[in-house]
Structure formats: C-alpha cells, structure tokens
Amino acid sequence: MKKLIFAFSVIFFFTQCAKKTIETASNVQQNQVDKSWRKMAPAPAAARDIQLGAYSTFDLANGLKVIVVENHKLPKVSYQLSLNNEALIEGDKAGYTSFAGELINKGTKNRTKAQIDESIDFIGADLSTSASGIFASSLKKHGDKLLEIMTDVLYNPTFPKEEFEKVRKRTASNLASSKTNPEAIASNIRSIVNFGSNHPYGEVQTDETIKNITVDDCVKYYNTYFKPNNAYLVIVGDITPEEAKAQANKYFSKWEKGTIPSFNYNTPTPVKGAQVRFGNKDGAVQSVINISYPVDMKPGSADAIKASLMNSILGGGIFSGRLMQNLREKKAYTYGARSNISTDKLLGNFNAFASVRNEVTDSSVTEFLYEMNRIVKEPVSESDLKLAKSSTAGNFGRSLESPQTIANFALNTFRYNLPKDYYNNYLKNVDAVTVGDIQAMASKYIRPENCNIVVVGNKDNVADKLKKFDADGELDFYDAFGKKIETNNVALSADITAQSVIEDYIEALGGSAKLKAVKTLQLAMKASMMGQEASFETYQMAPDKYASKMQMMGMVVQEQKYNGVKASVGQMGKNQILTEGSELAEIKKQAILFEQLRYNTTGYKMELKGIENVEGSNCYKLVVTDPMEKQTTEFYDVKSGLLMRTVSASEKMTMTIDYKDYKSVDGIMIPHTSSISGVMPTALVMEATNVAINKEISPDTFKVE
What we know:
705 residues; 13-stranded antiparallel sheet; seven-stranded mixed sheet
C-alpha cells in the first residue's frame, strides 16, 4: 500500500510540473494574481445591526421597577431582586453589609433556616441572598411556591443570633487564610493605596472590624436599604409580561417604600510619581505584582468602548495582549500577565497584574512599565486593533446566547441611564474606533509615571531590587490588610543575636530547667474542617517518641506513631511502615520536645534577619536551618519573647502557623490556639481542649506494627 501511494504521489508531482512547463507567460502572471488574493484575508464586512432579545418593563406603585425577559426554551424562571443603593463607608464595622445580606435567608418569622432549605430543595429550586439583593430560580410550575418563600425571606428575616455567630466565625476563618494569600494581600493593599481608607472602595475587612459587628447593624442595613424604590426586579425565563405583572403585583406590591440615604465622597488624591507598596510573604517563591491606580470613567461614557479596546491590546483577555506576549511568550517570566480597566458610577480603576518568579520580579516590573509606556507613545498597528475588535465582537456575540445577558443589559440601561440603543449599537461603535482613538485613550488613562506598584513577595529576596522604581527610592511596607507598617525603621540593638532571641523564648516558656524536666506532653485539640468538627491528639515522650491521631465523625482518618527507630503512618485504614527517608525524618522531628533547646547544637544554623511586624506586634525574625537543611522562618515577639509565627516553604506550598492564646500549664507557657494557613482553602484554626504535662502515657501509644 505504501508503494502504491508513493507511485501516485510521483505521478501527481510530475503531472503538475508538466502542466507548468506549457503555460504561457500571461497564464503564469494570472496564476500569480490568483495566488495573491488567496493569501489575503477577506475584508471585514460592515458591523451588522444587533437585534437584542426583547424585554419589557413596568413599575409598581411602590416604586419597584420590573424588567421581564422572555425565553421559552426551557420551562424555568428566575427572579433577581437587585438593590440600587450607593456604596457605603462601613468604618470600624467593615463587612456588616455582607453579614446582613448573608443572614437574610437564615430564618424568618414563619420558617427556620432548616425549613427554608427544605422547602427550596423540595421544589428543586435555588435561593440565595447578598447585600445587593436576592436571587431565586425554579421550574415555572413552582414559580408561585418559590415567590412565596422568596418574599417571606424578603419581608420577615429574623437574623438569628446563632446564624450570625456562624457567619462571623466563617468570616474570621477566611480572613485567617487571606493573611497568607498573596493575591488577597495584594488586593487589600491595592484598595487602600488607590482609594484611601475614607472611601467605600478603600475599606478592608479585618479581625477587628468583624468583631465590632452586631446583629443590630445587620437589621439596620436591611431596614434602611431593602426598599422597593431602591430595587429592580428582573424576571427571566418561560414567562409572558402579563404573567410577570400578575406575579409582581401579587407578591411585591405590599412591600413598603422608604427614604434611601445618599452620599457624596471626595475623589482620592492621585498618586504622584511611581510608588512601590510592598507586602511581605515570608517563604514565597513567587511575587504577585499589581500596577494600579483609580480612573474616572463612568459606564456608557464616550471613552468606555475605546478604552476597553485599548486595554485589550495592552493586556486584556486576548492571548495576543502585549503583556502576555512579552512577559510570558518572550521572557518566560510568568504563566500569564494581563490588565484591566473598569468603569464605575463612583470611580473605576486600572490594574496590570501577574505572578512571577522571585528572581525576575524587578525585571517583570520593568517590562510592565515598558509596555505601558509603549502603548502611550507609539500608535498601535491596524492589525492589533482589528484583532481586538474581532475578540470583542466575538465575546459580545457569545454573550447574547444567554437570556440573562439581555436582562443585565436592560438593568444597566436603567441603572446607569444609558441610551436606549446603547447595546444595539455596541458593535457599530466598536467598529468605528480608530488607531488615533486608541492612542488618545492610552494617553488619557495609562499612567506609568504615576502609579502604585504593589508587590507581595519575599521581602528578603525581592524588596531591595524594587527601590529603583520608587519615585523617592523608599519602599512603603504594608500588612496583610493594607495597614502601613514601619518595621523597616526599627533597628536591632547590638546585644540582640539569634542565640539571645532563642534564650529569651526558652525563658518566656518557663526556663530551661523546667522544659528539660518535661518527660511527656499530651495535647488534645479541636477544629472545624469542611463543616465537620475534627479532633486531634498528639503524644510526645522523651527521648523522642511521638504519636498523633486525627478523628472526624467518630472515625480515625489519620494516625502516626514513632517509637524512636521506625514509624507507622495510617490513613483511612491503610498503614505504612517507615524505616528510612525524608518522611520518617519529618516524623522524628515532631517527636522532639521543645526543639529550640537544640538550636545551639551541631546541625542547626540560625540567622537573625531583623524586626518585622506580625499582626501589630514587632517580632524578631529568625531563619532556622535544621540538620536536614530544611529552612523555617520564625517570629518571636520583641516584648514577650514568645513564638508568634512560623513559615515553612516547599515547592508546592508555603505553610504558615500562628500561635496565640498562651496559657501556663504546670508553669510552662503553651499556645492554646494555632491557625494553619496555606494547606487548605481556608485557615485551619485549632483550639486546645486539654494539655497534660508529665502524665503517664502507655508505651503501646508508640507501638509500631
């Protein structure tokens, strides 16, 4: 078969050659013309008229504006109640509006949370609430039942205290995790430096603000803003305008209107010069870079479409964006580098961002600023503009496949007072943008000379290299919640050494003699994992024996034992014996009682790096290298001498453990709360339920089988 195919190929090749030898000169010229047009892309057609799906609107007497979008492909209907209130400054209770929104469906005068959930599940529906409104959807035949539940939630929320505390606890857990999440840290810093703490967009939730929130704050928010004259009801699905009007009147007409407060906010002072804002993430092997500043551009403004196309060329969603092509394709600094520019009725912003390797952090900032300068100074090519237009048109066209898009377009038209034909003419306006328009938008909105360069990364490896980008050559440092800190100005006294820090820690725990007298240590803890309570038990016995057990729902899910020679590791009933290797070495290390007592022995190395702030407290920062060459960064409180945080990094993750709530047990200070971040999506907060020192432990506890 292969020979037959080869024969036909040879015949075809010589046939084509023979034909060419007898062509006349005029025919050759004609063929060349034909080839040229085949290589040219067809000219784009004029932008077509966009016929958006029809929607209808009507108002109820109480001021509720209703938008109806028909879509009869599926027998489903959704109801979106959206508030239209202004952004709020929440002050020292930042986060209370989100608390209120989450609590609205956690119980009513007629139903408990469990009854609400059961009723929604029974009809196969969805119901969710937030600070900005309520969303519900179901099959059309269950519409009345769904609306009865939805309006019960709307009219009669009780804000149960026990549910409030659950929200607070879950929020605290999320905040604990965000403290070590570089993207979250960068977002917090960016909000503060762009908008300031006295602007709604410059507020950041912290441990302190969520502690200040009360149920009364949530009730007040609900009573003030959940009013029909402050809301839109968007109904989408298998429903006619007549049916929608009947439902709206039946379920929402008794909703009483109210007076909605309005606010005016000062525009933040623009940043002068490039300012580097640094957030430290010990152990990080990558840096998160955000180059950002606020922009005053309202939705539907004359600049909105032009600026969006300009940003697409610079670093928008298309892969051909210049930032992506430079930092990823050309330099291989990152997996992705992008930018966005947002409109907002109050104040928008520009942000260019990427996560890059430590060693190329400063080089990456250089390339970001280069591309920002280039798009300002050099006109873009027609081909770049054409590609951006094609991408925009494609995304717009795909979005029209969803009836919810039509609803959002209608809502935006009312909310932002857009022209009635704004979206019908959208592609025509995209097509009309010129190269000159792009450069005008870049000149107006791209400001590499006046920007906040926010970097979150390993201070020891990265910070000093960024000074060259700062207008005054001095970096500003921020904590995880965007609060400016001054630890870089705290000097170490000459008598402070790594050894003295460890000696002070040992003394703070109770003293060397007491620690060395400890022969056994038992610790029982509890934590919440994936909505279930988990219990942990650890046992240590001198010299260097160790056992641990984790249980959930009455079952042992993980167990470790080390008898001083070998170890066993069990997970979900499967057991493995370890006699050598790195995993055995890690378990052996856990067996050591008060490891700091060994820091001055052979195999350990310590380096005092300075003083840094850990959640408001100045701490000595030590980098400790153990005999296995594993490094851990440890933070000891300058005042108390106690260990506050450890950070250990590997190729896959960076784990941070915070130690709190030290209490004396038989004269030895033991932390009773530990928060572990970087291992799970949310922080694992472990609380001690029992601590026993020098109590007898059965030898079977460490038996390896």
